[in-house]
Design brief:
It is a single chain. The chain is mostly helical. Helices cover 50% and strands 7% of the residues. It has a domain of 104 residues: Multidrug-efflux Transporter Regulator, Chain: A, Domain 2, CATH 1.10.1660. The protein contains six helices and five strands, in the order βββααββαααα. Helix 2 crosses helix 6. It is elongated.
Length: 149
């Protein structure tokens, strides 16, 4: 089993594989998924959603990720799972078509102000809904991949 750096150790860099392969070696979808702490069906779903993510495919549809593909997957993971972007927002950020940063970047998530019996602010509710939407999109992607198998 390859030992790798922790997925959250360097936000915009690919994981450092320590499996005896050269740094520029091709990696299987399983190796990449394990290194980043993701499921393989998530990577296949991201290949559909992000046109710039195109690993090499060999006979039988076996995927091989180049180092630049691994770095892109790590960046997508950073945007979606750590910065709270939606898939559309992450796609815009990666393609440089985001325009104003506020159109792409999520609102910061803060603690709801319900402890004093007050209603949370509208931006807090919107932030919470964005996080919920991101989780639901991930679940939908997993279900769609499961139905295809």
């Amino acid at each position: 089993m390859p030992a790798v750096d922790s997925p959250g150790s360097a936000p915009n860099t690919a994981p450092a594989f320590q499996d005896g392969k050269a740094p520029d070696a091709l990696r299987t979808i399983g190796e990449v998924a394990k290194a980043l702490g993701l499921k393989q069906h998530v990577l296949r779903y991201w290949e559909e959603q992000f046109p710039m993510l195109r690993p090499l495919t060999r006979a039988g549809g076996r995927r091989y990720y180049r180092p630049e593909d691994v770095a892109l997957v790590a960046r997508i993971d950073q945007l979606l799972h750590r910065e709270g972007y939606t898939i559309r927002g992450a796609l815009q950020a990666l393609s440089g078509k985001g325009g104003a940063k506020s159109a792409v970047a999520p609102a910061p998530v803060s603690e709801p102000a319900t402890s004093a019996g007050t209603m949370p602010a509208e931006d807090e509710i919107i932030s919470a809904l964005r996080v919920l939407r991101r989780h639901l999109e991930t679940i939908r992607g997993g279900l769609a991949a499961a139905l295809e198998d």
